[in-house]
Structure formats: C-alpha cells, structure tokens
Amino acid sequence: MTLEEKVYQMCALRLGDGDEIFKSSGVYSIDYIRQQMKSHGTGHISCPTTDMDAAKGVKTVNEIQKVAVEETRLGIPTLINDEALHGVKGFGATTYPQSIALSCTWDLPLMKKITDAIGKEAYSRGIRQALSPVLDLARDPRHGRMEETYGEDPYLASRFAVEFIKNVQQNGVICTPKHFAANFVPSNGLDAANVSLSERELREIHLVPYKAAVTEAHAKSLMAAYNAIDGVPCHANKWLLTDILRKEWGFTGYTVSDWSGVVHTMGMHKIAESKGEAAVICAKAGLDVDLPRYKAYVELVDEVKKGNIDQSVIDESVKRILRVKFEMGLFEHPYIEDTTQATKLCNAPEFRALAKKAAEESIVLLKNKNNVLPIAATAKSIAVIGPNANVAQLGGYSSAGVPSVSPVDGIKNIFGSTATIRYAKGCTLTGTDKTGFDEAVNIAKQSDITVLVMGGQYSVTGGESQDRIDLNLMGVQEELIKTISSLGKPVIVVLDDSRPVTMLNWIDKVDAVLQMFPAGEEGGNALAEILAGKVNPSGKTTVTIPRHTGQIPLTQITRPYGREGSVAEYPETKVNGIVSKDRYYCLYPFGFGLSYTTFQYGGIKFAKDKFSIDEKIELSVNITNTGSRDGDEIVQLYFTNLHTKHITQAPRQLRAFQRVSIPAGGTQTVTFTLNSSDLSYLDENLKPKVDAGDFEIFVGGNSVDGVTNKFTLVSKK
C-alpha cells in the first residue's frame, strides 16, 4: 500500500444529511464519489443512506461499493456506517424505545431479540458499522443526552451493552460503543465539558460498561469522547486509547473519533495549532479513524513526510482497520447480495411487535392513589390534555418516515369504541401563554377522567446540546396540572420526557403518575393499554428521581457520608413503605416501579452460611403475587460489604436481576449465583480485591424495599 492508500483507510468520506454533494433530488453523484476514491480508496463512508428508503439505500450502497472494489487499485471495500441507537437510523426503519426506556424493561432476553433485529435490518441495508450503543452513564439528569444511556448504574448498563453488541455483531455489523469515556458527567451537567474524576471513580463507575463491551462482547470498534479528563482530551488520551483499552483490556479492534473530534482538539481544546498537528497527536495516542469526513487525518500524508509522525504508527492503525474488515466478512461479501431483503425487513410486523412489547415493559408507574388506574370500564369520557398528548416521542437518533402512534391516538385506538375522547393541547412545552387553559378546563369538566401528557421533547428541552439548569417542568405546564387538578376529578399525569423531572410542586395534587421515556413508534398504543389495564405495568426506573434539582448528583451508588448530619432540612419521607430521613433521600429510588398487583418477598436462603472465596455463592428467595392479577416483577439483588478494608464502598451495589412472571396468588422461587469476584473492589493500588468477611445481600423490587440476609466469605484453605 502507498502511504496515501494507508492514510485514506483512516479517513471517512461524508455523504448525506445536507452535505454539499447530496443533490436536492436525493441522488448521489457517483462521479463525485469516484473522483474522491479512485486514487486511494476510502476506509469509511459516513451515513450515506440515512434519508433514503430501503430500496434506494440498497442501490446506492452497491454503487458505492462497486467503485471501491472494482475501480480502485487495491479494491478494498469501504465500511459504511450509520447510527443504530434504538433502531437503524434509515428512512422507515423500525424505531424501538430509546435506550433509557429500554433499560427500564430490565429485560435482557427482549433486548437480545431487539438488537438481533437491529443487526439484521442494518445488514440488509448495507450498513456494516453501527455507531452504537451509548455507554455513558446517566449520573446527572441535567445533561441533555441522558436519554441515550442505559441509566445510572454501571452494572445494569454493562448487561445491556453486552446484549446489544453481541447480537448486532453476530449479523455482520460492527458495533462502536461510545463515548469513551465519562462524556456525560461534568460537574455542571454540560455536554463534553472537562471531567475531573479520580482514576478510582473512572474505573469503578464509568469504565465498567466499556470494559464489558470489550472483554465480554468483543466490540470491534470504539468511539472516543469529546470531553477531556483532567485536562487531556479523550481523542488525544494515550492512557485511555492505548494503555487501558489495548494493553490492559486486550482490545484488537479500531477506534474512531466522535464527529470532527480530531479537529476539536485544535479548535475547541486548543492543544494543537493546525489540523496536521491535531492529527499527529491523536494518531500517536491510539485513535485510528477520523470521522465523519476528510478533515484532519488527510494531513497525515504530509506529516509523515515532514517526519512529525513515524509511518509505523499509520501501519498499526491500518492493520487494525483491515483486520476488522476481514473478520466481518466485508472482503468476501462487499455487496448487498439480496437486494429485496431490506424492503422486506423495513419495519417488518415482527419487528414492530418487538417495539410494542418493549414500550409496554418500559413504562413506569410511579404513583397510583386509590388505584385510580387502570381506568374503570365505567368511564364514558376521557380528556387527553397536554403539549405531548398529540406527539409521538421517538427520541434522538431516530429514523424518519416511520409510522408512529401518539398518546392521544393510542387512547383513541383502545378506548374509542367505549368512551368519548376529547383532546386539547392546553399549553406549549416552554412558553408562558395560558390561553389554551380555558379549552383544557372545559373538556376536563365534561369528562370522567383526565390524562395530562406533559414533559419535554427532543431538540426542545432535551437531546444533544440541550442541557438544563433545573428539572422542573418547563413553561406553564405545572400551572396547567394544578388548574386541572383543582376541578376535583381524577387526574393522571404521564411524563413523556427524555429525563426525569422534579414533581414536588404538583405531585400531591394528582392521582397517578406514569413515567414514559421516549417509547418508540408504538409508544401511544402501549401507554393506552396500560391505562386500560390490558397490560400490567412492570417497568422500573434506572435513574434516581430527585425531589429537588439541588440534590444532583443523586445516584444509587454513592459512597457513605463521613459524619453525622443535621436532619432539620431533610424532612422525613416515605418511599414504598420505607421511611428515610437523611440528606440522600429522593422522590423515587433507583429500581422503583409499581404494578396493578402486589408482591411479597420471603426470606433469603443461602446454600450455606459460609463460602470460600473460590466458591460460587448460591441463594434463593420466594416471591408471592399477593394481588388479584398476574404480573411481572423485576427482582433486584444488591450487596453490601459490611467491613471494607481502607476503601469506602457504596452501601448497596446492584449485582444481579431477574424479570419474572408470577400469576395472581402464585409463588415463584428465584435463584441467584454470584462469584466472589462480583463482590470485589479496587484496593489502594487500583487492583481488584475480594476481602474475607461478612456481606449482606439485599433482594427487593427496588433499591430500598426488600429483604436482607448475611453470609461470610472465608479465605481459601
């Protein structure tokens, strides 16, 4: 390979989404592509078919690959990438609930089916690299992109990450988990700001999902983050990209920039004076590919000739890229061979059914005073009010052109034959105009029950570059809730939003609250079936919901406070029967979610009282459905090291969970098996260590309400 051919394997050609070569007719100029590729090829092409229907996308991909394979000197196929965060980002493709909603299902078998479907749909369109999943953690809900995460807990996120990557990659599509690392947790909640965290905090919290992605799921690629860690931009961070990722974890794939991330080290971080210098710094650190277009890494040809970077650095990156292309079968199968498959799979009925199932399981019932839900069959009229009532929330990185169902449409679909459905917007999301209140009040007065669909929307109150300073509902939404609640009729609030909100100003005035994170194309139908009782709600929160914005960050994994504190400003609160009076108290804890039935946990039984450090720890617990209807319970297991050696630990850490279906009146025995490594922590030298001693196991339906028992871990004999 010539130096130019090598360097261009590290570069990407950008097509689509308004780029200058994307004609108004929506047809690419193959002559332009040929001109760009003929002398050197191109390693990657960014999102060329995002806005095309399946058939046009297939035709375009095959035309592009024909140029790469048949009209360049070496005939190296190009890797076509696109987003697939919760479904392929291609026109008309299936759109599943957003990542934060998927995590609220706690359903790994369902996640396996969904991600296998995503892999199949991506492959059928010629997309061979999915720029997904997002493995940042939702540690600060002010951050606009928390909807893209699998919640706040590193263990839970790691389990969803492994399912996503394994099942997409088994279909011949490379996964690129992102954004490496700690991109969503700056101290002020701002996207891509500098993060000042200890190495211990990084390793114990933020690197956990990425390590699982590499060592368990064998991700073939990985994307660097925009932020800096302790002043070192992640794109130029040799410790992250080489020492940790390759030398310590054994990563053999290739790394890519977040879009224009290499140039940002010059223009934003100011650590380089030119594109060429930025390219040299990042390539030496271990960054292999510059996405999304020819910007910085094209300068590496001249930088090698100037002696600013050794060609051996280029060679290593190119070896990694070509190795993955071979491993994924791209050389053997560069073309889409079955050109009809993409159209057949585009939002196929079986995929849409998966989307609906996921939406049903993702919705969380937070409050249900006097069992106002499900809505009684005697209700003959329902008012549906709110700025999100007539909007189908899909979330960021969603496909366009997919048929989707709004809450009011779903309610009409389910209740329309038995009840009168009246709709009014009431107010906007962020404005102060209250002229719509009169119409909302009027229809609420005429109706037996009101469903208020409030919250936020992607690109308006949340999403990329939409960080917030507080978590109250915006605009006059809270005033609308209070106004409708004052009528004395039952009121259900649906929070259709990409992040949790604070509720103290109004929660005591309403009868029920449902949290619906962006629920995908079938979200409206799923919501309506829960309201009607056709589906028993089973979702559980994967973020802690605070009482006040000022409590943030407020997460389940929090190291203990170092002294006694006044509780005068922390009034007593009661969460699902548990009374708490401390500075950490929240509105709803991690793992919380109600059902239309109730579950009772029996005592935890261990196989024995003492286990050797090299033994598996086996335990079981009986769970009884004490209500009158069948239901699913998400059984969560947390552990506590009762006497940590020198290093403080969070009082409860999630280490296992199971989703179980229990018929009314039935009892199910749930068993767990832990390895001693599941109880490890990082010692003074940041090495994993398991101490002999006493441990407490907590099993419950959320992180505060459950049963406990203790066992002892003893040293090897």
Automatic annotation (TrEMBL):
The keyword Electron transport does not apply. It comes from Flavobacterium gilvum. Residues 633-703 form the Fibronectin type III-like domain. One of its GO terms (biological process) is carbohydrate metabolic process. SUPFAM superfamilies: (Trans)glycosidases, Beta-D-glucan exohydrolase, C-terminal domain. Belongs to the glycosyl hydrolase 3 family. InterPro entries: Cellulose_deg_GH3 (IPR050288), Fn3-like (IPR026891), GH (IPR017853), Glyco_hydro_3_C (IPR002772), Glyco_hydro_3_C_sf (IPR036881), Glyco_hydro_3_N (IPR001764), Glyco_hydro_3_N_sf (IPR036962), Ig-like_fold (IPR013783). The keyword Transmembrane does not apply. It comes from the Bacteria. Keywords: Hydrolase. GO terms for molecular function: beta-glucosidase activity. This is Fibronectin type III-like domain-containing protein.
